[in-house]
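Researcher: I've been going back and forth with a colleague about how TFIIB-type zinc ribbon-containing protein might be arranged in three dimensions. Neither of us has a model we trust, so I'd like an independent prediction. The organism is Dysosmobacter welbionis, in case that matters for your notes. Sequence below.
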Amino acid sequence: MSRIVDEPYFTYSAYNALTSGIQVKCPKCHGAGMVTADDDNAYFRCLSCGHQETRDRTIYRYDVHNQCKNCGRYYRVDIEDEEKQHFSVLHVACPYCGTTMSGEVHKTAEAFSYTAEIQDGREPYFGLELWFLTSFQGKPAWALNREHLAYLIDYLSADLREKPLGRAKKTQADHLPAFMKTAKNRERIVKLLKKLQEG
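Model: Here is an independent structure prediction for TFIIB-type zinc ribbon-containing protein. You can compare it with whatever you and your colleague have in mind.
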């Protein structure tokens, strides 16, 4: 009889996997690539063709702030339109009296993007398809990397699944969708995951 003690909740989160790497398909050659990140940037590197991409993880705020030459009030107008954010000077209307004046576009770092959730089998920074991705009854079943895949296979094929000792309320298995944990599906899902592991 095989047993497994579950891992803590965030062990295989996309956010944690950014240091060890999220395995993805290269958009150029469809070979295996890796997405990693540090505090400032997310990086993609293809292990097959060498293609690389870097994306800034900082979220910027663009605005024009000025003193209206008509009503004399100070104002700030956020520039939401991405195409307009590239200009150094824009004409904007004073929100108080409607007078249009030109003003310098200011760019300030607001925050880092920590929205590291997998959606539709794609990683959150470049939107690249995960390398370990399959489908079970029309629903995506995926793993972030080899370690995560091995955990899923071990967890789903164990006869006895235990929560770790301690005060941890949530465990890694709490991330799994119900269809993966259902007894009647587990064996077939493990087969699909093992095929991914061999591929």
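Researcher: What would you highlight for our discussion?
Model: I'd start with this: The first strand starts at residue 3 and ends at 5. After that, consider the following. The mean pLDDT is 87.
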